[in-house]
Every structure is written in structure tokens, then in C-alpha cells.
Amino acid sequence: MQYTFQVQGMTCGHCERAVVHAVRQVDTDALVKVDLATGQVIVESDKSREALANAIQEEGYKVAA
Amino acid sequence: MQYTFQVQGMTCGHCERAVVHAVRQVDTDALVKVDLATGQVIVESDKSREALANAIQEEGYKVAA
């Protein structure tokens, strides 16, 4: 499945890496693309949207949609 | 010596940790205090101001003063 998340609070490359890492903790094989400027995170994964969103939120970022 | 650096580009807690880590690479025993809101970094160290500033800049942040 491909999911698009609108993530708030990512300000820099460290944040980008933290979000990618959080997603990969849930799914090692996930493909993750982050657009820092817009806050959009696109994830290709066979895990659930909820599990991925929770991982991002537990890293300290708000998932708006 | 106590030095005050005006650092640009720190946006989040990761950046704060990256700067603290960079300083500690130069001086393990340095005391480092970062004010993210103002960009002020106060370092207590027996290393030179230049060595500390270089370490912060090599981490990707601009030291303005």
C-alpha cells in the first residue's frame, strides 16, 4: 500500500532521518520519501496506516492526516 | 574559558544534540548550554574558540559570532 501522511514539526534533515527511521522500525522494507518543505511523507509498506502513523507520532511529530 | 557562540540553523532538539556532540568531539569535558530559541551556545572549555567554532561549523551550522 502507498500512504501519504501530512506530518507537522519536521524542521531539518535530522527530523527527516528520524521519521524515516521510525517508519523503518515498523517495516524494515518500507520505502519512505519525505518532503521537508511541505511536510509530506509518502510510505510504501504492507503495514497498516495506523501503525505507521503511530510510529511517526511516537517520534514526536504530529500526523495531521 | 567560557565562550558564547551565535549559531544559525539550529531548528530542533536533534540540532541541539548535534551541536553538543560536535563540541564534545573537540573537548570531552566541555560544558555546553544551547538556547534553541535564540541560537546562543555557551561553552565552558579549555580548548580554543576557533577549534570549537570549527567543530560546530563542520556539523553544518553557521557560527555568526
Automatic annotation (TrEMBL), chains A, B:
Superkingdom to which the source organism belongs: Bacteria
Residue span, HMA domain: 1-64
GO function term, MF aspect, one: metal ion binding
Name of the featured protein: Copper chaperone
